[in-house]
Amino acid sequence: MKSILLVEDELVISRVLKAYLQKEGHQVWQADDGIAAIRLFDEKKPDLVLLDVMLPERSGWEILQYIREKSACPVIILTALGQTDQKLKGLNQGADDYITKPFVAEEVVARVNAVLRRSAILVKDQETRFFGSLRINFQSHHVTLHGLELVFHPRDLSLLLFLAQNPNQTFTREQLIDQVWGIDFAGSDRAVDLAIKRVRKTLENWPAQEGEIKTLRGVGYQFCVY
């Protein structure tokens, strides 16, 4: 099951699409204006966004720009603006597909599934994951936050990469030493605490509602994402 944020101010269209997407097995959140769309995107972190262009409060173009500044989440534009220049505008600004109204609900579902499949393959190939505004490329060891590159001590980076590859799993200090420092490490497990402290300092601008490196007292540490 994938999560879909459906941003559409025409209630009938929104209800029909939600029913078809749920029948396909997807979880659907609905927004009928631009402000609600941004709030739900930040709160729910959907796998895909279906985005109308003509919206109250903020336009679909503004929302698309907002999403692209912090995420690679797939976006499909839904609009009555079918001119070629409008389609090119959407695709050039980072949309993954463009569907013009009127449309058949089955086609929208098929397009959603196709984009989700392509997205899954792309993420796997690039070995990149987004945790809200935190982006980690596990192949290049490149980490950015709000689009800005973060610099880590090599050992601290290895610790972050290991924890991020295993989100929401708790590891003891001994397990982290084995995985990051190596079983031949002769120092104190205090090294883990100090490294965690430095990583947290580097990630201090990572919004708390997106995730954190959590301490489970008496147990260990966890890369916790929401």
UniProtKB/TrEMBL annotation:
Record GO terms (molecular function)? phosphorelay response regulator activity; transcription cis-regulatory region binding
> What keyword terms does UniProt attach to this protein?
DNA-binding, Phosphoprotein, Transcription, Transcription regulation, Two-component regulatory system
Extent of the signal sequence: none
All residue ranges annotated as the OmpR/PhoB-type domain in the record: 126-225
The cross-references to InterPro entries, in alphabetical order and at most eight, read: CheY-like_superfamily, OmpR/PhoB-type_DNA-bd, Sig_transdc_resp-reg_receiver, WalR-like, WH-like_DNA-bd_sf
- Look up keyword Electron transport and say if it applies: no
SMART domains per UniProt:
REC (SM00448), Trans_reg_C (SM00862)
Q: Which residues form the Response regulatory domain?
A: 3-116
Q: Name one GO cellular component term.
A: protein-DNA complex
Query: Which stretches are labeled DNA-binding?
Result: 126-225
Q: Which residues are modified to 4-aspartylphosphate?
A: 52
Spell out the protein name for this chain.
DNA-binding response regulator
Native organism is Brevibacillus parabrevis
